[in-house]
Amino acid sequence: MDYNVIATGLIAPVLLLFLRFLLDLSLAQFFVKYFWWLPVRSLFRDNPISLGGIWEQQWGAAGSGNFSREIDRHSYTVIRQLGQYCYAEFYSKGVEYSLFGTVRSGYFIGTWCDRHDKHAYFGAFQFKIVDSCTLHGRFLGHSKKSSEVQQDIWEWTR
């Protein structure tokens, strides 16, 4: 019996189970941010559409006076994808935001927030994946300045 073959044959499945466990925890966004380059797409037996790459985004003001100018609601970002999980960071008016979500049944769903103050401005989003270059959807946003939850459109193009 060759123990090297047995050991190396067990390492990959154990590492994949551990990786899947980490991704299902709230640590997933940090793992995706730094290890998005790992080739795990076929190993998880899911084959979501690839959203990784450079995207242009435009969102609605949702009644906010802080984002009334169109230039304040437009930016470019890079989506990093690991299997069905996606992570991105972008800037608006000098504030850094992040979003984390999963690709499920033709939709990209998840949450977004101010990276440095997660209680300042945060919310949820849902995008319909029209094709590999177009996402159409909406976001919900909550600010600590007001108790109102607002919503508006959020469009992405590659």
Characterization of this structure:
- With 158 residues, the chain is an alpha+beta fold.
- It has a single domain (3-157), classed as Lipocalin (Beta Barrel).
- It has helices at 3-24, 28-35; strands spanning 53-59, 74-82, 85-92, 95-104, 107-114, 121-131, 134-143, 149-157.
- An eight-stranded antiparallel β-barrel has the order 1-2-3-4-5-6-7-8.
- It is elongated and about 70 Å long.
List keywords for this structure.
Lipocalin, eight-stranded antiparallel barrel, 158 residues, alpha+beta, single chain, elongated
Briefly say what this structure is:
With 158 residues, the protein is α+β, with helices and mostly antiparallel strands.
Task: Enumerate how many helices there are, as a single number.
Answer: 2
Our count of domains comes out at: 1
Number of strands: 8
Q: Order of SSEs, N→C?
A: HHEEEEEEEE
- The amount of helix comes to 10-25%
Specify the CATH architecture: Beta Barrel
Q: Kindly identify the CATH topology.
A: Lipocalin
Biggest sheet strand line-up: 1-2-3-4-5-6-7-8
Strand content: over 45%
Largest sheet: 8 strands, antiparallel, barrel
Low-pLDDT stretches: none
State mean pLDDT (0 to 100 scale).
83
Q: Let me know the CATH homologous superfamily.
A: Quinohemoprotein amine dehydrogenase alpha subunit, domain 2
SSE order and pairing:
Elements (H helix, E strand, L loop, with lengths): L2 H22 L3 H8 L17 E7 L14 E9 L2 E8 L2 E10 L2 E8 L6 E11 L2 E10 L5 E9 L1
Antiparallel strand pairs: 1-2, 1-8, 2-3, 3-4, 4-5, 5-6, 6-7, 7-8
